[in-house]
Specification:
Blueprint: E1 2-7, E2 15-16, H1 18-21, E3 30-36, E4 42-51, E5 61-69, E6 78-83, H2 95-99, E7 110-114, H3 145-155, H4 166-180, E8 184-190, H5 192-203, E9 208-214, H6 227-244, H7 246-251, H8 255-268, E10 271-275, E11 283-287, H9 289-299, H10 303-306, H11 309-319, H12 323-339, H13 342-354, H14 359-366, H15 374-383, E12 405-410, H16 418-425, E13 431-436, H17 449-458
Parallel strand pairs: 1-13, 6-7, 6-8, 8-9, 9-12, 12-13
Antiparallel strand pairs: 2-3, 3-4, 4-5, 5-7, 10-11
Helix pairs in contact: 4-5, 8-11, 9-12, 13-15
């Protein structure tokens, strides 16, 4: 059952014994202690020791960091697992979601946030790209090869970088489910977390109560190669939306022409622009066409920043000053440096995505787009020097698990467009796909909220409430 809805919205402590808290194998290599979790109130903080390489009996062990917000009903045997994006973000950073709009689920289910191996408190595989201290060095590429090489050498002293794949994380998730004593788990994944959720339900369908995936990433797209076309689609939608709104059209009467003039200028030569750090003096930087496109891509993730694009494009075309775009580019680079474990990011995407597209496919995917091959070529260069783990033969195959799945996509999403949700839903026996009009990357907390809570809490698509006027 695959249904797609097009919906309307706006535009764009004391120690706690693991054995006493759980059952079965829970007491082995598992620590739980009472703690205060952000604004979520009293919870339990835990660490679980697992093998880094599960094929080596006496190899290195790593600690997986997680947090539990207990259900109001004592002794809950079901939990909701929140899975973050990136790849490279730790899920404990999603405490605001768990303790906020998802908190009604705690009536009968625990809420569990686990930092995937290589992220957050689970031995984060971080790489310093130097964008914060040296703004000018952040431009022209998103993964400077010298910094990637330094990072690889540093991380290899403490980690086997081939052991940080999606399926390795799934094995950790299942071991943690067993140790905490849950019969079944519901999964809520965002962005890359949608792939992690799919991977879990592929391997453990009987243990999966329901799945909600928001900003859907299929297994077989070769993610970076799709970025140029995804951005172009979002830019075209943004231009059309401005033409359709009288106020925007009057304020930016030649928006498409202004954008084309900026791209033409940058094709001739990079532009000099200024970045203003919070402290210190302004810094002059060199902005390329790829940098400009990547700045727009970051803005199109959310409706609020997407609405800033038309006037920014018009100002830049009129004045020739692209500093606003340079500032957005640099801010995104520094934010990603703080929130994404770049080593884990590469250990996931290099073997699972980047190695698969051919040169001909990469060229075709970039043809006629503003971004071109800028991002994909950076990934290809970085992955050439990054160790690559093995992936299962069925890893890139569609998931067919008989599990209730609600898929959510944002109409303007530049990275996981609605067609990705359709693509994943086609192979699922129990699936509904909501496309939220005017939304970007990550839409579940908006108008689909009631449907999301229904599916995760009740474990069914039947009786799902109508949302967003649909």
């Amino acid at each position: 059952m695959h249904m797609r809805f097009i919906l309307c919205a706006g535009l764009l402590g004391a120690a706690v014994s693991a054995a006493s808290a759980t059952s079965g194998e829970a007491g082995q290599d598992l620590e739980l202690r009472a703690c205060r979790i952000g604004r979520g109130g009293q919870g339990e903080c835990g660490r679980m020791s697992v093998p880094e390489n599960r094929s080596v009996a006496a190899g290195r062990r790593i600690a997986i960091n997680f947090q539990v917000l207990r259900a109001q009903m004592p002794g809950a045997k079901e939990a909701v697992l929140l899975l973050a994006g990136g790849p490279g973000q730790g899920s404990t950073a999603m405490i605001g979601t768990a303790s906020g709009w998802m908190s009604p689920l705690r009536a009968s289910m625990d809420m569990v946030l686990m930092d995937q191996r290589g992220t957050g408190g689970s031995g984060a595989l971080t790489c310093d790209m130097g964008a914060g201290e040296h703004p000018a060095a952040a431009f022209g590429h998103i993964m400077p090869v010298a910094a990637i090489e330094r990072c690889r050498q540093a991380l290899e002293r403490r980690a086997d970088l081939t052991q940080y794949t999606t399926d390795a994380a799934v094995a950790d998730m299942e071991e943690r489910r067993v140790r905490l004593g849950y019969d079944r788990i519901a999964l809520f994944g965002v962005s890359y977390g949608t792939r992690l959720a799919q991977a879990y339900m592929r391997r453990h369908p009987a243990r999966t109560k329901a799945v909600v995936i928001d900003g859907v990433l299929p297994f077989d797209v070769g993610a970076p190669v799709t970025y140029a076309r995804g951005l172009q689609r979002s830019v075209d939608l943004m231009l059309a939306a401005c033409r359709d709104r009288e106020a925007c059209r009057q304020a930016n009467p030649q928006l498409a022409e202004d954008l084309a003039s900026i791209v033409t200028r940058l094709d001739k030569a990079p532009a000099r622009a200024t970045v203003r750090p919070r402290t210190g003096d302004p810094v002059e930087v060199t902005l390329t066409r790829g940098d400009f496109a990547y700045a727009m891509r970051g803005m199109l993730y959310s409706p609020a920043s997407a609405n800033d694009l038309p006037p920014m494009i018009a100002r830049a075309a009129a004045t020739g000053d692209l500093s606003e775009f340079a500032q957005r580019y640099w801010a995104r680079a520094t934010n990603l440096g703080r929130s994404i474990a770049r080593g884990l990011h590469l250990s996931i995407l290099c073997p699972e995505d980047v190695v698969h597209p051919t040169e001909a496919e990469a060229t075709a995917a970039a043809a006629g787009t503003i971004l071109g091959r800028h991002v994909f070529d950076d990934y290809r260069t970085a992955c050439a020097i990054w160790p690559k783990g093995k992936i299962a033969q069925d890893f890139r195959a569609p998931v067919t698990a008989n599990v209730p799945v609600l898929l959510v996509s944002g109409q303007f999403d530049p990275v996981t467009p609605p067609e990705f949700g359709d693509r994943v839903a086609r192979s699922l026996p129990l699936a509904r796909h909501i496309v939220v009009a005017g939304s970007g990357h990550g839409s579940a907390s908006g108008c689909p909220r009631a449907a999301v809570l229904h599916v995760l809490g009740k474990g069914t698509l039947e009786g799902m409430p109508a949302v967003c006027g649909g």
